[in-house]
Amino acid sequence: MGRAFEFRKGRKMKRWSAMAKTFTRIGKDIVMAVKEGGPNPDANSRLRAVIQNAKAANMPKDNVERAIKNASNKDTANYKEILFEGYAPHGIAILIETASDNNNRTVANIRSYFNKCNGTMGTQGSVEFMFDHTCNFRIANNGLDAEELELELIDFGAEEVFEDEDGILIYAPFGSFGALQKELEHRGLEILSSGFERIPQITKELTEAQIADVEKLIEKIEEDDDVMNVYHTMKEE
User: Which residues contact 141 (CB under 8 A, 6 or more apart)?
Assistant: First the structure.
């Protein structure tokens, strides 16, 4: 198996386990998708993907429809996606994806977390290059052959396809999202969820005490309502 498989295995069930946090995150995704492409999922591929993710997270349909309606209101605050970079203790690179309606607040909060946990907030581009920006799709496994599917989807950007207990996962570079989404829908394959991840090119192994130091910072960052995802170069089992 490749790096995407190992990355997914290491992160499984470790992050975003709180339902309330997941729903908040999806709600922001809905706002950004509607502001970008309108409230009709048939004409808005990004919104279509978010609705699939909401369903996978068991977000009530009423909540989704309400979020779409609210996002269509011109008075609804828009969220700007901002990337933060830095280092946790013991040389672990940290990459933070946020969606905020108040940049000053988010910057101040993220800086304070690094300061309080002996980390260092970096400048733009200081650690982003250490991660591969990928997209992924989870589709229903209705008797499909993952190896055969991988060969068929290579022309659409697929780099890694593998099975797990919840279906078949497809990984590709960030820029291949649209082409893959279109091809999967054209084939009539059921997309259960989709998204983007940043996979570290190299990971660093730490002692238990050092891991605790890094996790203290990561947990602090993840508690922030503006934070969508946190990625790092610490090796996870």
Answer: 163, 167, 168
